[in-house]
Amino acid sequence: MSIADIRKTAEQKMARTIEAFKNELQKVRTGRAHPGLLDQVHVEYYGSMLPLSQVANVSLLDARTISVQPWEKGMGAKIEKAIRESDLGLNPSSQGDLLRVPMPALTEERRKELTKVVRHAGEDAKVAVRNLRRDANEHAKKLLKDKAITEDEERRSLDEMQKLTDRTVAEIDKLVAAKEAEILAV
User: Can you list the GO cellular component terms from the UniProt entry (predicted)?
Assistant: First the structure.
């Protein structure tokens, strides 16, 4: 494995870390509704647990209301129960076949809790990035020990990894700040 391979691998893994962090942020509920909020809800369907998106059409009615249209007549009650029992704090109401899921307004206290959740997720992502840097640096030091590279190449590799880590951490900080602003916006 060469220095270029180490760097490329670390870049790819850091990019995947950022993507995973973005997906994590999407699960954090703000005052607005979005269909992805119900992605983790699973419904019992003929003996097996399926994601809500596989048994119903999930869409937005307006900025604060999600509509859930079951594909089968008898599924409405099961879907309503699954949404109510999820830890999302949502209370769906049934209108014939259609389920309306209004998003409750966030209290100031709940907003502060959510910003803490976002910061914690950001710290976890930063730890993952730093672990990737450490692994890449260990590979570079091993190459130096095996005399595959010179000390200058190793030093340059460590500097490049630090710059890559700094850029990635800055991007994570930017995502955290944007999500906090979104949560705190009334």
Answer: cytosol
